[in-house]
Amino acid sequence: MSITTRAAVVESGGAPFTLSDVVLDEPGPHEALVRMVATGLCHTDLGVASGGLPFPLPGVLGHEGAGVVEAVGAAVTGVAPGDHVLLSFTSCGGCRNCRGGHPAYCATWLPLNLIGGRRADGSSTVSRGGEPLGGHFFGQSSFAERALADERSLVKVDADVPLDSIAPLGCGVQTGVGAVWNVLKPVTGSTVVVLGAGAVGLSAVMAAALTPATTIIAVDKVGERLSLAKELGATHTVDAGEADLGEAIASLTGGQGADGIVETTGSVAVLRQGVDALAARGTLVLVGAPPFGTEVSLDVNGLLGGKQIVGLTLGDSETQTLIPALVRMVKEGRLPLHRLISTYPFADIDQAVRDMRAGKTIKPVLTF
Predict the structure, then answer these.
(1) Using H for helix, E for strand and C for coil, what is the string for the chain?
(2) What rounded mean pLDDT belongs to the chain?
(3) Which residues sit opposite 66 in a β-bridge?
């Protein structure tokens, strides 16, 4: 039977989030009904809500959910009613990348997560007044009191850890952590630079502090965020509003350049500066996503010293392994995620959006 729940609906590109009663389909064989306890608000949600991506609207967004399983489909084996779960991205499970442990690069990732708004078979998971809405966002659409989630989006977690303290692990945190651990893999004495001290960037700083990298440089224009970056493990900071990025990195690295850079800003100008600031054989991980079709010019000869530019989706994470490990680190105090989080009642989602856009909060988490 279908389930009526309260959701934050975006009616059209640029419209605010509006609370509305919607109807969830009954769980399919590989789906679960989850009572939401908390969900993070991410810049990807804001980009889609603004109309910047071709997601079908009206629709229900949200992709950093955390909650308790209420019911499961007939073929679900990984979770059971009563389990505490984090909700992350979904994937097909059968393509070459999924089978190879890289589900973030699933052959059907875009339609299943970001732009499809439907299940893989084209059916709708959520409706209103008998009309289907865009849903199935990252296999979850967690801006609602209850979410119908793909089994492959669900990760069972330690029930002793408060769900509002770990909701951001589903997207932003695992992206920043994965950029460092899964791609850069710093060796002893290396230099890591993080461009942008938002939620993803500060997660990368925390991850770098848990590696043998000895120089960790955070770059931003907001002094408070640079101060927080120092507290979370950065050894140096650069105020991009006052210093030339290339000159600053050269000075801090003895002219050698950075071994690894995480670019989170989505600015092609910053991206170009980052590539130019790499050391020979250095790697830049491209995380920040500008609008579709954006291009950047690079000095080809400048790349011939073995520089690499690697695009990244969701940290190239295998969620069933990474997320429980991060939850344990949060529980033990080794990943101080609480320093990034500000909580808001679900009904105040628009205030959370305004505060996020204004830079007043790093990672808003909505609570139910």
Answers:
(1) CCEEEEEEEECCCCCCEEEEEEEECCCCCCEEEEEEEEEECCHHHHHHHCCCCCCCCCEECCCCEEEEEEEECCCCCCCCCCCEEEECCCCCCCCHHHHCCCHHHCCCHHHHHHHCCCCCCCCCCEEECCEECECCHHHCCCCECEEEEEHHHEEECCCCCCHHHCHHHHCHHHHHHHHHHHHHCCCCCCEEEEECCCHHHHHHHHHHCCCCCCEEEEEECCHHHHHHHHHHCCCEEEECCCCCHHHHHHHHCCCCCEEEEEECCCCHHHHHHHHHCEEEEEEEEECCCCCCCCCCCCCHHHHCCCCEEEECCHHHCCHHHHHHHHHHHHHCCCCCHHHCEEEEEHHHHHHHHHHHHCCCCCEEEEEC
(2) 96
(3) 38, 86
Residue 342: pLDDT band (50, 70, 90) is very high
Give 284: exposed, middle or buried? Use CB within 10 Å, 0-12, 13-18, 19+.
buried
Model confidence at 1: pLDDT above 80: no
Q: Name the residue with tokens 């330690």.
A: 158
Q: CA dist 120 to 45, 139, 336, Å?
A: 21, 10, 37
From CA 290, how far away is CA 263, in angstroms rounded? Answer: 12
Amino acid at 279: A
Question: What's residue 2's pLDDT?
Answer: 82
Strand partners, 7: 20, 144
